[in-house]
Amino acid sequence: MRRDGTVGRLLSRAFAVLVALIVGSGLAELAAVLVQHRAVQQLTGEVQPLQLANAELRAVLTDAQRGLRGYLLTGDEQMLDTYYVARSDFTVAGDELRRLSDRDHLASADDQIAKANLWWAVAERQRLEPPRSNAAIQYAEQGKPLFQNFITANEDLRFVLAARADNLRNQATALQAAAIAVVSVLTVAAAVAAVVTAVRTSRRITRPLGAVVETLDHVRDGKLDARADVTSGPAEIRAVAEAVNAAAEQSEHIRRHEEQVSARLQALDTVKTDFMSTVSHELRTPLTSISGYLELMRDSEPGELSDAQRRMVEVISRNTKRLRDLIEDILTLSRIESGTYTSDRTPLDLAKLVDKAVVAIGPVAAKGSVGLHLDIRGPLPVRGDGAQLDRVLDNLLSNAVKFTPAEGTVTVHVERRADRAVLKVADTGMGIPSDEQQALFVRFFRATNAIKQAVPGTGLGLAIVRTIIDNHSGTITVESTENVGTTVTVSLPAETA
């Protein structure tokens, strides 16, 4: 073997391969990052704002329908304020939806707004009729399919946007995986080229080249702080060492970047949790004051308030309770996410808790003409947090009554089975679509049939119930058939009597 000429040519070819692999790795990573950035930019800059605008338009029209319906049912003209506000906001919301829609979605936005305008036309004629009159009822019947047509168009656009968002996320994930694969393949190829070069060289370059290969192996195994010696060996070997160090520095830079991204995501999650907790606390203080003054007004002497004023106070009270419950749910969710939501378990009788919960829900069921059937086989001693289990019972019973139509029934059954205390709440309500049941305990999830029928709710209750049951070493299952009914079964460890 000639002294330096042959070795130089051999190593030159090896260096060219290594440099090409390094540059290719960098270009592949850069291309993936650019395309991934474009996908994320489309998601956050186009799709998500359009999703929010679509949801806002639906909320505006839903508020208008609710206000008009309340006026026609009660005759209270103040309830038309919601309708008028929604009528004013509709134009702004529609313009915003059109502005954000690109050419692929503009036709859907225009179709949705056109269907909404058809409903508005009927709603305006309905508003002019006397409450509870035959003409108002006829216009209401005409408006139902028009409103449903709008809801269907809104849902179609929502599904299209959701699919597009999922596609962008999948595209970003696939690009990231492809970039990692390309970098890995190129790194392995660089290692093979280095090994082949070492075999074909003389003893003069064997040791320094072996050291370079060893360093490269360390980098490939994740030891990104490993560096090759660039001061020993021929000039060609020193160049290889420098190339390996460049690759290691690039990999370390990528790792630091990934760590920074992870830290930012964690910080954003912490900020979100802190924001939810702070806002909920800040809302609860004025809400407590509102509730106090409402109680004073409701407890006033007869004659101080007219019947109409008392009805308005009752409406305010109900909505205040809904807002208070929502704030409590958000606070609980914040504690769950921060890991501070625990259960103080003490001995108690589950049968008594169920009996009290059924008594509390009785007036609501009676108002909705829903029958309550109770079958308690107690006493049933368990160890649990009384307040949290009360919350579980209130949520399950409220859901059962809320989703059960008039003349339906809700059956509550409690018994001991071996070493378990079993609670069953069965209703004859609208049920849950089978393809949606696996998402019941996901935060903010609401079944499509409940949304279409405008049944109020936030989708937080069952997620909190699931956490409470888990904290009590219990299980919860749901069996449901659409338009037939739902049965929720809770099982908790029972105590010795």
Automatic annotation (TrEMBL):
Record EC number: 2.7.13.3
Domain HAMP, residue spans: 203-256
CDD domains: HisKA
Pfam families with a match to the protein in the record: CHASE3 (PF05227), HAMP (PF00672), HATPase_c (PF02518), HisKA (PF00512)
Database matches in SUPFAM superfamilies: ATPase domain of HSP90 chaperone/DNA topoisomerase II/histidine kinase, HAMP domain-like, Homodimeric domain of signal transducing histidine kinase
Histidine kinase domain sequence ranges: 278-496
InterPro entries: CHASE3 (IPR007891), HAMP_dom (IPR003660), HATPase_C_sf (IPR036890), HATPase_dom (IPR003594), His_kinase_dom (IPR005467), HisK_dim/P_dom (IPR003661), HisK_dim/P_sf (IPR036097), Sensor_HK_Regulatory (IPR050736)
Reaction catalysed by this enzyme: ATP + protein L-histidine = ADP + protein N-phospho-L-histidine
Enzyme class label: transferase
Keyword Transmembrane in record: yes
UniProtKB keywords: Kinase, Membrane, Phosphoprotein, Transferase, Transmembrane, Transmembrane helix, Two-component regulatory system
Top-level taxon of origin: Bacteria
Protein name: histidine kinase
Organism annotation: Paractinoplanes ovalisporus
Species lineage: Bacteria, Bacillati, Actinomycetota, Actinomycetes, Micromonosporales
